[in-house]
Specification:
By secondary structure, the protein is an alpha+beta fold. It folds into 2 domains: 76 residues, OB fold (Dihydrolipoamide Acetyltransferase, E2P) (Beta Barrel); 171 residues, de novo design (two linked rop proteins), CATH 1.20.1440.120. The chain is 39% helix and 22% strand. A 5-stranded mixed β-barrel has the order 1-2-3-5-4. Strands 7-6-8 form a 3-stranded antiparallel beta sheet. Strand 6 and strand 7 form a beta hairpin. The longest helix is centred in the C-terminal third of the chain and has 19 residues. It is elongated and about 65 Å long. 36% of the residues are buried.
Amino acid sequence: MPVPRMYKTQAIVLSRFELGEADRVLTLLTPHDGKLKAIAKGVRRPNSRIGGSVEPFAELHLVLVHGRTFDVITQASVGEAWLRLRDRLESAATAWYLGELAERAVEERAAAYPIYALLRRAYQLLDDGMAPGRVARWFEYGLADALGMRPEVDRCVECDRILEETEAFRWVPALGGVLCGRHTGPPAEQVGVSLAALKLLKAYRRLDIEAIAALRLPTTVELEVEDALRRFIRYVLEREARSLAFLDEVRATSR
């Protein structure tokens, strides 16, 4: 049976680049068709019917036609706009960062519903005003889990022994999580982790995001967990996210 030339999908815009004088190529994350590139023809013209719709930080309802190089967007409307997250610079910068992680994690046309649902929920949480740092950590942990690489925080990744509160811990992304004090890992790839940070890492594994949002934590512990999960995601995706520099600059100027 031939594949229909026209199809409909929900989508979140992950990135974009300009093409020619009026067109724009979008990288989209869809719930059932995974990541794909599509062209919005004439979208940069003032009279474009879809120009105001195909923007980042929104869930779109699209009608597309299969093309040779790129699929072509013929209709677009906004399902969820998430306008409030755009009004807060740190939330918007965090949304860019999470979108980049999703783009790097998903192969072209590969099934990606768990990551789509994760990104959609993260954008809703940012729109609701939840602390961007906690949303980012929750997303990073969830993304690693969706990719089948959830970090181990209950047992030593070397000897599989349950971690005890009285010992020293080290975070070793290359080995998959926490190493107990009885073992040594690659020196360049490990960092010490405090008991308080380990407990917070366990919370991200076990609690829902609303429970995590209600926790009262020292800034030092949150920064330690931020560093640990960023290291882990960098290892999983094999590169640093480009948008991190902008996100950290925004956070530094807002303090």
